[in-house]
Amino acid sequence: MSERERQNILLVDNDLISTAFHELQTSLTSIKSFAEILLDDIGDMDIELQKKYLSIINEESEKLSYLISSIFDLQKIDAGKMLRKKERLSHGKKSTNL
Question: How many whole angstroms separate alpha carbon 13 and alpha carbon 74?
């Protein structure tokens, strides 16, 4: 592998890490914010609104779980323990190729 190829891989890896951490932070912020709203308004909030907020918390938790699993898979790939396969990951507006 040439030096240029190594540099390109490092740039892609750094971009992927940056994107992953941004996505993790976004999901965590959503979970925390909606949980705080629910806690602050216990007993006063409409049940349908509570369900909506809990659904958002659940969806963001699933996204976090998926992202964390993907990061562990990438770590295994980098360690040579797993074959790298090309697939498209899509969350919201951003898509990333592995």
Answer: 10
Burial (Cβ within 10 Å: 0-12, 13-18, ≥19) of residue 27: buried
Q: How far is CA 80 from the centre of its chain?
A: 23
Contact call for residues 84 and 98 (beta carbons, < 8 A): yes
Burial class of 40 by CB neighbour count within 10 A (0 to 12, 13 to 18, 19+): exposed
Q: What is the pTM of this model?
A: 0.66
> d(Cα 61, Cα 92) in Å, to the nearest integer?
15
pLDDT tens digit at each of 98 positions of the chain: 777 776 666 666 777 788 888 999 999 999 999 999 999 998 899 999 999 999 999 999 999 999 888 888 877 877 776 555 555 555 554 444 44
Sign of CA dihedral 50, 26, 69, 89: positive
